[in-house]
Amino acid sequence: MREDLARAGLLEGQVRIPAGCAIAAIVATDGKPMSGHDIITSMEPMRERSSGLGGGFAGYGIYPKYADCFAFHFFFDSRDSRKTTEAYLEQGCEVVNRELIPIRKMARITDEPLIWRYVIKPHRSVLSRLQLDENEYVVRLVMHINTSIDGAYVFSCGKNMGIFKAVGYPEDVGRYYRLEEYEAYQWTAHGRYPTNTPGWWGGAHPFGLLDWSVVHNGEISSYDANRRFIEMFGYRCTLQTDTEVITYIADYLLRRQKLSLQETAHVMAAPFWSTIEHLDMRDPEGARKRAELAYLRKVFPSLLVTGPFSIILGFNGGCMALNDRLKLRSLVAAHKGNRVFIASEEAAIRAIEPDARDIFAPAGGVPYIVRVDGVEGGLA
Amino acid sequence: MSAQNRIPSGIDYLPPLFQVIRNADRCIDCNVCVKQCANGVHVRDAQTGRLSTVDELCVDCQRCVCFCPTHALQICEAPNRYRPNANWTPQIMRGSYKQAGTGGVLLSSMGNPNEQTVYWDKLLINASQVTNPSIDPLREPMETRCYLGRRPTSVMRDANGAIDTSLPPHLELAMPMLFSAMSYGSISLNAHKVLARAARELGIYYNTGEGGLHQDLYEYGENTITQVASGRFGVFKGYLEAGAAIEVKIGQGAKPGIGGHLPGAKIVGDISRTRMVPEGSDAISPAPHHDIYSIEDLRQLVMGLKAATDGRKPVIVKVAAVHNIAAIASGIARSGADIIAIDGLRGGTGAAPTMIRDNVGIPIELALAAVDSRLRAEGIRNDVSLLVGGSIRCSADVVKAIALGADACYVGTAALLAMGCHLCRNCHSGRCNWGIATQQPELVKRLNVDQGVERLVKLMRAWNSEVMEFMGGMGINSIEALRGNRLMLRGVDLNESELEILGISYAGR
Amino acid sequence: MGETIQLEDCLGERFIGAGASDARIEIEGIPGNALGAYLDGACVEVFGNAQDAVGDTMNDGRIIIHGNVGDTAGYAMRGGEIYVKGDAGYRAGVHMKEYGDKRPVMVIGGCTGSFLGEYQAGGLIIVLGLEAGRKGRPIVSNFPCTGMHGGMVVLKGDAVDAGILFPPQVDVRVVDAADCALIAPFVRNYALFFGADGDDILQGPFTLVTPLSHNPYTRLYVAN
Lengths: 380, 509, 224
Description:
The complex is a heterotrimer of chains A (about 375), B (about 500) and C (about 220).
Chain A: H1 2-7, E1 19-28, E2 34-35, H2 37-43, E3 55-60, E4 70-76, H3 79-92, E5 93-100, E6 114-122, H4 124-130, H5 134-148, E7 152-156, E8 161-166, H6 170-176, E9 183-184, E10 186-194, E11 207-209, E12 212-218, H7 223-230, H8 242-256, H9 261-268, H10 273-277, H11 284-299, E13 309-315, E14 318-323, E15 332-336, E16 339-343, H12 346-350, E17 357-360, E18 368-371
Antiparallel strand pairs in A: 1-10, 1-16, 2-9, 3-8, 3-10, 4-6, 4-7, 5-6, 11-12, 12-13, 13-14, 14-18, 15-16, 15-17
Helix pairs in contact in A: 2-6, 7-8
Chain B: E1 18-22, H1 32-36, E2 42-44, E3 51-53, H2 63-67, E4 73-77, H3 90-102, E5 107-108, E6 123-125, E7 146-148, E8 171-173, E9 177-179, H4 189-202, E10 206-207, E11 224-228, H5 237-242, E12 245-249, E13 260-262, H6 269-275, E14 283-285, H7 295-308, E15 315-320, H8 325-333, E16 339-343, E17 352-353, H9 354-359, H10 364-377, E18 385-389, H11 395-404, E19 408-411, H12 413-419, H13 441-444, H14 449-473, E20 489-491, H15 496-502, E21 505-506
Helix pairs in contact in B: 4-14, 8-10, 11-14, 12-14
Chain C: E1 4-11, E2 24-30, E3 40-46, E4 60-65, E5 81-84, E6 105-108, E7 121-127, H1 132-135, E8 150-156, E9 170-175, H2 184-194, H3 198-201, E10 206-211
Parallel strand pairs in C: 1-2, 2-3, 3-4, 4-5, 5-6, 6-7, 7-8
Antiparallel strand pairs in C: 8-10, 9-10
């Protein structure tokens, strides 16, 4: 089927595909592991927001045994593309482990590619020869594989985290990947409603790079302005999806420009000038805030993301939920005990925690940041 | 009748291009047409007292038509024509006769009027339907403000981790349009006053051009860009300090590679004082800047201007769109300039050799697309701002230019239209009946400054309203999200090369 | 009123009561989006929160929410009443309108998000901000009443003094409760439904927002 769509020029990467969606996250702020059961249940009441054409999950803390290595999840079209990729990986990395990702066959999930997990560690000698840190090396590795090796696609490449996605309803996708067998302190999830094509496996969400993962609801109107900016810095938007470009923006601002999560939110969902100028200049804190907000808008104008979006950006040690500045998509958060819940609809939260407290909707452009005790902030 | 108005006959005779038709039933003999025409088209016979017209002198400026109280006048194309020939057009034939008679280089005013591809008209703009909401610009916030200037490549912090918010100097524009360079001398002081006051009211900028800054206009410095061209007329420290930014003019779209001169006859009074050129002496702008023979010299000039102004003024480098524009722009971006301005083939002028105007340079749309793509390929697009002009005719052109990658647009001719210009293309004659491209006091005073400001402000605000409508339709509420957003454009009637250079898809894809 | 329908353990089911004209619907749990859309006379009561688009284009009837509502509550509502005990999200009452004897009313006990009453064309929106102080947030967020060209918004307290910015096309006046007599019956309803003290709520100043013109955009266009 992928070939047919490819011939029609309808695959991600060949045409831009906007999508509507449902998103959710569960975070154990005390770092206690949770199986994938609850996050799957959480997606069920939002079935109306998905169309069975893409679902996926990201789990953090799932590979403690390999915490220092990068866990690559691959879709391969054939054994040949896997062998080519493997040879390429081995040029610069030690492959610590390789295995088929375990799945549970089911009737509603079809046309599956070969799904592999490679746990890798870049060789130190290679990093010093290229004068790159390991994150930057891995980013370039992924960009190369995804743009240049036919039939190979890396869809997850972080440390101690993993993305699992497929064409199907999210509940089915979660069971297909046997997520109840994984233990994570944080899960995010996505159900997809692509607007003009059936989609393919690689185009499902979350989208990931290093330990960033993004689930996203909405369609951004700034896409090409954002894409053409971010591609100046080595990123290649091969899928032409909003989620992909948002992930690269986050990586660029957080890892390369070393902005904080708050500052990143103030670039991507910058307050209106009128709001910035309403800050009180007589108050030193107001004046500082005003200067900082204006600075970020002036320096990164092309990373302002407009149009409706709600996203959950996951990373090692927590996540950030963010709405567009007009708040054109819904997003609510709540908590109970040591668990924080975020979802497109309150029903998704009530489905797993009927007594969740302090339900609230973060305002447009105001990031809602959750951090996990005892887990290193990772890249953030 | 003056000597210059004498009409030749025989082999040098050129039949009139226009015919002035007077409706005798409507004419009330009021003499307004006679008074309004500085070209002497309307004459009253001393003996009979009857009104007649000298069609040969008419430039089709429409002044008499507009001011005739009974609308008794019409100007039509003259029915006389040469034997039709698609190759030897009437314009080419007339030029040949003029040159055979005088030996002169053909001179024209305003932008290239010939039929040629206007790429703006081949570009179509997107709008949201279902998957993404359009935004109502009348009610929701819609930001068209933009900042022009250099941007740092990485964020710096102080010892406490706070962002160092200092930035190189920026120009703040309330809307993505500003007025392009038109010198005092080529246009009247009243026209300059209109531009200056409108720029202030609109929160944008006007550009002095290369003729210096009249003393009455120093008070509009915050909305002024002072230009430094090869002639360096009126350039001194006070001038450089007076504006908000300095523009180095290397070239102009209407006459790339060509210098110019303002004849000594026009160097009188205030113009002499403002240009700092003695009365009666020609003001000659050399073709090149004689301190720039290579790209590294440009850096020297840019840095010199910054040194003279303590780095407080952003420096714009303006070039004509020529074949190698992408590489040139890349060199400018690395010269220390804050802003690159590119002027296209169809750009206007007060006077340019016709052949140069119509045949040298490339269209602004292609130049802009090529430059923006090149600067991105080199990873330096965010370092500098990009201004384009020549010619931006309406708000749709502005939206398309920004989607192709421009930060803002220089607007020249449209601003003159707001003041009354009817594009008769005779600026070089100095007898502008609308009081714009003239220094004759009785003509200059026809341009009412208050009214001109009001009209120009209305025009730009109307454009800005339309820009917001376009943006809202696309679901974009800030101009920066439109910048370089080429996915918002599709092409029609374009070949593969054109689509590739413009970086857009054909409509339907 | 017709039969009473009781729904328990609601979990995100959409369109409950859509177009209903003659029933009383009582809901436990969390109803899904578009609760009471096109409602035409029925009464819907939720003993908890509701999600987005409550009372979308409702024509008549009453919706009572014993909790908070999501975004765009009362969108294009043309009649009937909505009472929300707590907060509303973004764009509450967006493009509410009135015609003839239809005059919609929405009462929000807590605070609202940005764009309250965006291009409101009619009807009455009352925001009481009863727990605004405790929550440390303004009674309404940014850009209230943008494009308003009909109807009325009433906010409890002096919103101007609280630093809330209104657009130029509306008139904003701070008045005594006595000058706001028309809100009293709806505030008393609110007190009745949610067990509050109506007289107490009606004490003190109110901010009254009305449009300066019903045709604010006529000058924007010129025939071409």
